[in-house]
Structures are given as C-alpha cells and as structure tokens.
Write a structure and sequence with these properties.
The protein has 427 residues and is of the alpha+beta class. The protein is globular and about 60 Å long. The two termini are 20 Å apart.
C-alpha cells in the first residue's frame, strides 16, 4: 500500500497553557514504560465531500488545553515535558494505489499493512527534541474509506488515556456535550513520584519492531461455545486469554521437542477505579499494574485450568491495588516495582517463556463518531515492539473480541495451526 502525504502542520491549543503547568514531570510509572508510541487506527466510510479537515483541526485545537501535555515536547536532559504549546502533528494523506480494497485489508488485519496509516516516525521515539508527543493522520482511500490514526508517546499516556482523548475529541467534533464533560486529570506524579531516568528497570523497544502482528477475531458464537465447555461463567477477556495462552504454551513446547519452559504470563490491570480512594475515571498517564503468574508444570495445561490460574492472579492484584494507598498496606512501591523488575528480567532470559496480555476492550473505540453520523467500521493498532504481546479489543458488535497477537514469523506459523485457534477464531 502506497500512501502519499498531502499536508502536514502543527495544531496548537486554542488557549495557552498557564505558566504553572509549563513543566510536566514524569512519574515513576511513566519512567518505567517502554519507549514506544501507542497507536490506534479507526476506519470510516466517508464521502469526500463530507470530509471537512478544518473542522477536525478546530475541534482538536479546542480540546488540547485540557490535554496540555500532548502539545508539549519531551526534554531528555530534564526528564520532563515542556508544555509550551508547541503543537501536535496533523497529517493529511491519501492512498494512491487503485487496487487497495478496504474489505481485503479488513479481512487480514496485520500491523505491517497498517504502518503507513500511522505517523511517519511511529517506531522512532524521542529522536529529536522537536518531535511531537501526539500525531494525528487522516488518510483517504480511493474506495471512500477514511482512516483516522492517533499516535501518542507511551512516556506520558497509556492506552486508557488515549481512549479518553479519542472520546473527548470525537465528541467535541460531533458537537456532543459529553466531550465537554470529560475533565482529564494528571495526578500520577503526585501519587508515584519519579526519580529520574535511572529510577528502575526499563524496557528498550527495538526499532523497527521485530514481531509480526495479526488480528484474530473471536466472534460471539465462538465465545459462547467456549463458555459452554467450562464449569463456571467467565468474562470474554479471561476466556480468550486462556485460549491464546494455551496455544502459545503449545508453540513453545512444539519448538522444544515436547519440553516446556516455565511460563511467565503477565496481565496488565488498569488501576483506575480499583484503588482506595479511587482514581478519577479520566486520570491520564501510565496507570497500570502488572499481574504476573508463573506456570512451572511440565504437563499440558487445559483452557479451564488456565482460566482459573489467570483469574487467581488478577484477583490477588485487585486486592493489592485496593490497599496501595492504605496506611497499613504494602505501599505503591511494593505493588509496582517487584513485578516490573521480574518482567524485565524474564523478557531478557531464554529460560522463561514470557507472554503478556493487555486489555483495551473498555476504551470505547467503536463509539467514536467525529460528526459524520457513523461509528467506526473497523479498528487497528500500531505494532508493539515485543514478541508474545497480545492486545485485546472489543469487536465492532461489542459481543466478541479482537486479539492482536505479536509473534516472530516462525512462532506465528505454529500459532495459526493450533487446533483451538483454528476452531474459535477468524484470522
């Protein structure tokens, strides 16, 4: 797919950021987040005459004062964001190929096919002090499909924060008062004070990323069938995680002549709403904790066993989140730092099979209407840099799951031949 850049500009906040907010310091959780961008792509069918780029630009400018760090620039030496309203990147592009049909793109979603729909430097972070922290790209297909992509530096925003931003921007563009009711807050530096760039373990993302990212769709009927074979009712997310984890453990076993390595499964938990007192719903920053599970058995682990094991790990971490700020609790350092250090160590070890799940299913991406009278007909993501990372999203109908699985090419070939993956998914 060949994409041509039509225009590129900086969009600045409609009102200047107050002087007292000009320096946005990174929290501990920000400092220990992989150096990468979080990318989301939403697809619409919009006739060219109905697309008014200036309206998107104006609505973006109007909400940026609330999301002021996004219009700043990261200063490496000072380890903070200079919020002097330098602006966010806004790119208009078009697909020049005549033979690119969106239905074909939708039927075999892969991150390498979507990369040109994201900002040009998606896989390069902090190369220059002038690099924007937020980039928007609006790309038109000749078939009438429109792609709206949002790329945000993971240094300051996690996926839930990006979801809040997309909801606010689309609601404002749609003249929906709900957008004006969203009041993002930035309290992470107060809750989790940072210590500078060497404050703890950190992941360095390869550039360009090595994994192949493919989307596997679990339809409603497939999830219903899976649930019918389990003795207890479980959430869609938990069931899908168990199926994928079982398949990936099988891939690892098959590549090693039937022998299993210890398997370190990590699930990310959005701490918003789980702490006492609860963080505001629209808190922005990197506000997640890791729920690690170590499986050491040589025996084949079934789907129901994995559902229970994963659920037990989550429940324990829910309790940890609730006690994070309690005087008699473990404190946030005890809750966050240990699992983070273990993850970094295991990712660098060939002795452990590490699998990571992150859940984006409650971000409301398929609700984003920018004023065109329609919601997205499809969604994609930017590739994550580490192998065996799975991003889970709602499907368009809201009753299934879309799992973006990132593996090296050899592992992907094994994974696609797993019996459960072939039975329950539509690649």
């Amino acid at each position: 797919m060949k994409v041509k850049i039509v225009s590129k500009k900086l969009i600045k906040p409609c009102t200047p950021t107050p002087p007292n907010l000009n320096k946005y310091k990174l929290s501990y959780t920000d400092e220990n987040t992989p150096q990468m961008n979080v990318g989301i792509i939403l697809f619409y069918t919009i006739p060219k005459e109905r697309l008014h780029i200036h309206e998107l630009e104006e609505s973006l400018s109007q909400i940026l004062p609330k999301f002021y760090p996004l219009a700043g620039r990261f200063i490496k030496n000072d380890h903070l964001v200079d919020c002097s309203d330098q602006g966010v990147e806004f790119v208009v592009a078009e697909v020049v190929d005549d033979d690119v049909a969106f239905i074909d793109l939708l039927s075999k979603m892969e991150t390498r096919q979507l990369i040109d729909l994201l900002q040009p430097k998606f896989h390069r972070v902090d190369e220059l002090p002038t690099d924007p922290l937020l980039s928007i790209q609006v790309t038109q297909f000749k078939c009438g499909v429109l792609a709206v992509s949002v790329s945000v530096s993971h240094r300051i925003f996690d996926a839930a924060s990006v979801g809040t931003f997309i909801t606010a921007w689309s609601s404002n563009a749609n003249d929906n008062n709900f957008g004006g009711k969203i009041s993002p807050s930035f309290e992470s530096i107060v809750l989790f004070p940072g210590n500078g760039p060497s404050s703890g373990p950190c992941l360095t993302a390869p550039c360009p990323p090595t994994p192949v990212g493919k989307m596997f769709c679990f339809k409603k009927d497939a999830i219903t069938s899976l649930r019918s074979k389990l003795t207890t009712y479980y959430s869609r997310v938990r069931v899908v995680c168990a199926v994928i984890a079982k398949a990936l453990i099988g891939v690892d076993r098959a590549k090693r002549g039937g022998k299993s390595r210890p398997c370190h499964i990590i699930q990310t938990i959005n701490m918003r709403g789980r702490t006492i007192p609860p963080l505001p719903k629209h808190s922005c920053g990197n506000l997640s904790v890791l729920a690690p599970i170590l499986i050491t058995t040589d025996k084949v682990v079934g789907i129901e066993q994995l559902v229970d094991i994963l659920g037990g790990g989550l429940e324990k971490r829910f309790d940890d989140c609730a006690e994070m700020f309690s005087p008699g609790g473990r404190g946030w350092q005890g809750v966050i730092t240990g699992p983070l250090a273990d993850m970094v160590e295991n990712l660098c070890s060939d002795e452990v099979n590490t699998i990571m799940f992150t859940d984006w299913s409650k971000l409301g991406l398929y609700e984003a209407d920018f004023g065109w009278g329609q919601k997205p007909l499809g969604a994609g993501i930017g590739a994550t840099p580490h192998e065996k990372t799975i991003v889970l999203m709602d499907n368009k109908e809201g009753d299934g799951m879309e799992a973006w699985v990132h593996l090296n090419g050899d592992d992907m070939a094994y994974f696609e031949q797993d019996d459960d993956i072939k039975l329950y998914t539509m690649p």
